[in-house]
């Protein structure tokens, strides 16, 4: 929370204008293209990073599929995760997020601009509807982020269990699965420090449908987690 306040104060002369643009876009999302909405979010994240002493180091951008219609599967460390992904990915991304986020005023507007899809993890029927909706939109050429842990790990750079059900949208869309290893992404918003922080984003080689089509979703989850853990553990040494 301290860093969020610091980000706002450091950008105080830009905040009114950016807030107006954000709210206007959130209220009329269908009037803007995916690229236009993504550019607005990138601008906001860039300002926030500079004001909040946050640096992002990214590797593997070349691993992002050449065509739209893929799903990124990162480990989930904190509230900053999606901002880091928006910043480094050259393509527009939407996120599947828990419904509770929609109740937070400013984040609600950001996620509207992102065209996020909210999921009720306690409602099996609604969760299945979300899976089908994501699969349909990915097949139509949109890109999504799904956090397979389902919630923040709250253990820093320790990766939690990946849920097999998170990968059903990918199997139905028959799309590339892009594993992403996040390191120190919990530090900007989930600690009380204002010290300079470097967040690492490692975009790993995609799993194509031909590679995972005969695997069960729990097996896909295990493989994606293994790849991410390998990178996290190596970078921590």
Short description:
The chain is of the alpha/beta class and 237 residues long. It contains 9 helices and 7 strands.
Short key terms for the protein model shown above:
9 helices; alpha/beta; about 240 residues; single chain; seven-stranded mixed sheet; Glycerol-3-phosphate (1)-acyltransferase
Description:
It is a single chain. The protein is an alpha/beta fold. 43% of the residues lie in helices and 14% in strands. The protein has helices at residues 2-10, 15-27, 34-51, 81-88, 105-113, 124-139, 168-173, 209-212, 217-236, and strands at residues 54-59, 71-74, 94-98, 117-119, 144-145, 177-183, 197-203. It contains nine helices and seven strands; from the N terminus they run αααββαβαβαβαββαα. It has a seven-stranded mixed sheet, sandwiched between helices. The mean pLDDT is 93. It has a single domain (2-236), classed as Glycerol-3-phosphate (1)-acyltransferase, CATH 3.40.1130.10. The protein is globular.
What is the residue-averaged pLDDT?
93
Spatial order of the strands forming the largest sheet: 1-7-6-2-5-3-4
The number of domains: 1
- Give the class-level CATH name: Alpha Beta
> Percentage of helical residues?
40-55%
The main β sheet shows up as: 7 strands, mixed
Low-confidence stretches: none
Beta-strand fraction estimate: 5-15%
User: What is the overall silhouette?
Assistant: globular
Q: At the fourth CATH level, what is the homologous superfamily?
A: Glycerol-3-phosphate (1)-acyltransferase
């Amino acid at each position: 929370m301290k860093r969020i306040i610091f980000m706002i104060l450091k950008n105080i002369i830009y905040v009114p204008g950016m807030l107006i643009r954000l709210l206007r876009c959130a209220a009329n999302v269908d009037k803007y293209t995916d690229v236009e909405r993504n550019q607005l979010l990138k601008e906001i994240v860039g300002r926030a990073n500079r004001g909040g002493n946050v640096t992002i180091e990214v590797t593997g951008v070349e691993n992002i599929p050449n065509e739209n219609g893929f799903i990124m599967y990162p480990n989930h460390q904190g509230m900053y995760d999606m901002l880091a992904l928006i910043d480094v990915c050259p393509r527009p991304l939407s996120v599947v997020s828990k419904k509770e986020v929609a109740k937070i005023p400013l984040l609600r507007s950001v996620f509207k601009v992102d065209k996020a899809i909210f999921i009720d993890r306690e409602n099996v029927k609604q969760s299945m509807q979300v899976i089908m909706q994501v699969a349909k939109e990915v097949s139509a050429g949109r890109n999504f982020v799904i956090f397979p842990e389902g919630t923040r790990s709250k253990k820093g750079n320790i990766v939690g269990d990946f849920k097999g059900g998170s990968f059903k949208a990918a199997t139905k869309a028959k799309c590339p699965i892009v594993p992403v290893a996040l390191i120190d992404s919990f530090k900007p918003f989930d600690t009380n420090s204002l010290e300079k922080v470097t967040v690492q984003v490692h975009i790993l080689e995609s799993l194509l449908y031909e590679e995972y089509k005969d695997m069960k979703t729990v097996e896909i989850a295990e493989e994606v987690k293994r790849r991410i853990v390998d990178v996290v553990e190596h970078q921590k040494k």
